[in-house]
Amino acid sequence: MRLARALHAEWTKLRTVPATACLPPATVVATAALGTAVSTSCGGDCDAARLSLSGVYLGQLAVVALAVLAAAGEYRHGLAATTLMAVPARLVAFTAKALAVTAAVLPAAALAVAASLAASRAPLPPGPSLRAGGGTVVYLVLVALLALGVAATIRRTAPALSTVLGLLYMAPIAAQFVTDDRWRTLIERATPAPAALAIQDTTDPAHPWSGLAVLAAWTAAALTAGATAFIRRDG
Amino acid sequence: MEPMGPIECQGLRKRYGWTLAVDGLTFTVAAGRVTGFVGPNGAGKSTTMRMILGLDRPDAGAALVGGRRYRELRAPLRHVGALLDAGSPDPGRRARDHLLWMAQSNGIPPARVDEVLGLVGLAAVARRRFGGFSLGMRQRLGIAAALLGDPPVLIFDEPVNGLDPEGVRWIRGLLRGLAAQGRTVFVSSHLLAELAGTADHLVVIGRGRLLADASVAALTSGGASLEDAYVALTGGSVEYTAGPA
Amino acid sequence: MSLPRSELTKLRTAPGLVWCLVGAAAVMLGLPLLASAGNPGTYGRAAFVDEFRFVHQPLSGDGTLTARVRTPAGGHPWAMTGLMVKESATPGARYAAVLVTPGHGTRVQADFTVDIAGGEAASWLRLVRTGPTVTGYASTDGVAWQRVAEVPMAGMASTVEIGLFATSPAATRTVATRPVLVPTRPATAVFDSVSMAGPWTGTDVGIPGGPSTVESSGTFAVTAQPGDIIARADDGSRVVAATAGTFAGMLPLVALGALVMTAEYRRHLVRTTLAASPRRGPVLAAKALVTGGACFAAALVATAGALLLAQPLLRRSGYRPPTYPDPSLSDPRVLRVIAGTAAAAALVALLSLGLGTILRRGAAAITAVAAVLLVPAVMTPLLPAGAGRWVQRLSPVAGLSVQQVRETDDAFLLPWAGRPWTGLAVLAGYAVAALTAAYLLLRRRDA
After folding, report:
1. pTM for the structure as a whole
2. What is the model's pLDDT at position C225?
3. pLDDT over threshold 60, residue C411
4. CA-angle at A189, arms to A185 and A191, nearest 5°
5. What pLDDT score was predicted for residue C351?
6. Strand locations in chain B, DSSP E?
7. Per-residue pLDDT at B211 exceeds 70
């Protein structure tokens, strides 16, 4: 009951600020637009589903921004204190935040994926495309929660955003600098993204879901850290 | 309205890094009167209020409202209404929505939001976004938030900050009226002259310790002004004094 | 003059901003050292190195080999498919070859030093050994032959290996230093109508292991690991190692550029700033000067330091003269890499500053710069090569082209191969556009 009320409040918070309210639609537009544009470059010998879903690389920025603003944006100017006064049961408050962000991202991700696949300029294999699309939706939700956890730990928008972006975009690049092959493979398998997007590979994926599993582990760790910070630290 | 209850601080202690902000603070704020909370800058007033509201965790001791800790209250806004630093919550949000989510979180009907907006005189600007609010308007909105749950306990930190004289007079009337209804009203302020006209009782702290917990009448007995009494009490606890001009 | 100084004070007394600079410098210094301290390269002491797949058989005395290249190896302008005569199937052995390439037509190459161009790529190739001379021929239909070139191979042994080969230059170096922006697949060439009968031996020259030949009734599919037959071992790694941290180090600088302006908006300091100096152009210019200068200095010191400190580590890993000559700071290429990298870092921060001023919120600015900088970089491996290369050329990440050292490899890694400053100019264009838009908006708006 308390959770339901807190969730209602968190949802209102998200939808009444233009900055966060516009991000789910932005996710849809960015993902679909880029994916469609990319799919036109398919020359016939290409993984059509993967290309049309590649707009997620842009769309995930909006998702990350949403989660970071939801978690860290309150710490400016004492809005966090107001939240904690309204819902002092901190685990309830944090869970409500996570659920609200999920509720915002999930439909947007589904719509984005559907639009990307529908607008694809190249023919799509139906079965694998469904898996690729579903995996992409899961990916976006996990990324949002990862960003939420990180932002709740760091509590400031700019550093949290930079950290999450670094994790998602830079980590695979950094892995290449390790010259020892064993370590490099290890690191590549352990980074959250874009290994997780192997799910989109409809041609010959080896372990399609294992990348998402790694991302899920990262997300779980981030949420735990964020929840702990939220609960234990001073408001 | 929920049943009344006093605010009780028992042996509160809080350290921030090296600084001992609050040290063994014990006092009670009774219902039915306006209690002022005064002390020099850095005396620990904000820290104490934050501990009462469950925002900061005390290192020792307890802060209770109506016999219970804040964090254990199920719908806290119905028990305690507070105005802390108004700050500037998200500038993109409308005033009404700011109160709306608070109401939703505590199961308070949305109609109450419009009611309190009318009470504080912001009904006309309910749909305006925060970015366009003056300091006085933000202050009024904070007061509206405190009144949202019709709580028996009210805690105000510098309520007259930014208000014009008409607003100051309105606050005075509001606080006295709330106390007359039997609520517990706890007000922290720097404006002693203003408090003298509003408060019945004073809690004076300095350097995190209790200096006085007495009625205004008792402090100003013998003809001394409140200001003189205050300076006499807190003279040794002032952190920042100006140098000779 | 006081305006830049006050902006500098604001910058250096804000701990968050200083940390961004320190963090960026640490990454730009640390990652190269990490990369340089790794495993020794496979390149030994030979000044030249060959790596390719050779399908061959012994030949005593004179002989002729004719084959049709049904599918030439693709994926790189310098991918090679052809016929070769080699003293033995070992790296460093003397050779003469006639070959076709996607980007450079038909050629005859020999002995690591001879490279003769011969017109458009043909589909039929013939290699003739007569005594000390090897001649290469090409034809479009297998009937009319043009002589491409004749190479004297005096002193070559009587019994040699003759056969088919395929190779394609590598897209990664031994010292992995840059993100692989466009992928290469191993070269696969298909030959048929081979004039000599078997048995054939397949050897991976210079490469440990690797995929194999498939012979099916006269058709040979030769797949090779990335390599080259005329590669200079020195791929510039000793210089490029210093750039290992550039891309990653840019992220803190993006945050820095965004925060320099947006932090003021958040705390309403911007009113103080603009009250102190109401003319907005100079304010923005001063911020740009200070931000760009600070980032340039930090990146310059970090990159130069990385170059110097990496040398002992690289030498210990096997990168020594004469194969890998010592880089010297008086080499204009080296100077270009260091100064260009610092300039690119500063421009990225300025782009971020411009966007931060336009959007007025730090989170929005960082997201926008990330979209423009990171998304193309991460996406190009997915795109087909043609589209991918254009995306690279026109995105701000093209600024990294200034770091190129050797054209043949860098053609695939860096978008403006051969024109390093053009890439930097693209990045500069973005920064200038952002700052101009920021200036126009700043003038129009209230604080």
Report:
1. 0.78
2. 59
3. no
4. 120
5. 95
6. 7-16, 19-29, 34-38, 60-65, 80-83, 153-157, 184-188, 201-206, 209-215
7. yes
Residues of B in contact with A8 (CB under 8 A): 104-105
Counting as contact any 3 or more CB pairs under 8 A, the partners of C are: A
For the record, the structure tokens of C15 come out as 């701990």
Question: Exposed/middle/buried for B215, CB within 10 Å: 0-12, 13-18, 19+?
Answer: middle
Widest CA span in chain C: 91
Q: How many CB pairs under 8 A join A and B?
A: 84
Listed by start position, the domains of chain C span: 2-42+235-444, 50-231
Q: How many CB atoms lie within 10 A of CB C274?
A: 16
ipTM for this model: 0.83
Annotated domain spans of chain A? 2-232
Smallest Cβ–Cβ distance between C251 and the set A54, A165, A194 belongs to A165
Judge residue C272's burial from the number of C-beta atoms within 10 Å of its C-beta, 0-12 exposed, 13-18 middle, 19 or more buried. Answer: exposed
Question: Which residue among A43, A54, A158 sits closest to C363, beta carbon to beta carbon?
Answer: A158
User: Which of C367, C389, C413 is the best substitution to test chain A (most A C-beta atoms within 10 A)?
Assistant: C367
- The verdict on a CB contact (< 8 Å) between A16 and B100 is yes
The alpha carbon of residue B106 is apart from the nearest alpha carbon of chain A, in Å, by: 7
pLDDT digits (tens, 9 = 90+) for C320-333: 776 677 888 788 88
Say if B122 is an interface residue toward chain A (CB within 8 Å).
Answer: no
Note whether A161 contacts C254, CB cutoff 8 Å.
no
pLDDT tens digits along C291-318: 999 999 999 999 999 999 988 888 877 6
Question: How would you class B99 by CB atoms within 10 Å of its CB: exposed for 0-12, middle for 13-18, buried for 19 or more?
Answer: buried
For C262, the closest chain A residue by CA position comes to A158
Contacts of C31 in chain A (CB under 8 A): 174, 177
- The amino acid sitting at B166 is E
Lowest mean pLDDT among A159-173, B143-157, C36-50, C88-102: C36-50
Interface check for B54 against chain A (CB to CB < 8 A): the answer is yes
Interchain CB contact of B106 with A (< 8 Å): yes
**B-chain residues within 8 Å CB-CB of A82?**
89, 102, 145
d(CA A12, CA C218): 72
Cβ distance C244 to A177 less than 8 Å, yes or no, reads yes
Q: Interface partners of A (3+ CB pairs, < 8 Å)?
A: B, C
pLDDT tens-place string over residues A6-29: 999 999 999 998 888 999 999 999
For chain A, how far is it from start to end, CA to CA, in angstroms? 23
**B69-104: pLDDT as tens digits:** 998 888 899 999 999 876 666 778 899 999 999 999
- C83 Cβ neighbours under 8 A, 6+ residues apart: C65, C67, C97, C98, C99, C125, C126, C127, C136, C162, C163, C164, C165
Whether B210 contacts B238, CB under 8 Å: no
Q: What is the pLDDT of residue A179?
A: 57
Give the whole-angstrom CA distance, residue B149 versus residue B152. Answer: 9
Name the residue in chain C with its Cα closest to that of A67: C363
The verdict on a CB contact (< 8 Å) between A194 and C378 is: yes
B58, B112, B140, B174, B175 from B170: Cα distances, Å: 35, 20, 11, 6, 9
* Residue listed under structure tokens 């092959």: A181
Provide the shortest C-alpha distance from residue B59 to chain A (in Å): 11
* CATH of range C50-231; options 3.40.720, 2.60.40, 2.60.120, 3.30.70: 2.60.120
Which of A5-14, B184-193, C181-190 is most confident?
Answer: A5-14
Does residue B210 register a pLDDT over 60? yes
Given a cut of 90, whether residue A198 has pLDDT beyond it is: no
- CA–CA separation, B108 and B138 (whole Å): 21
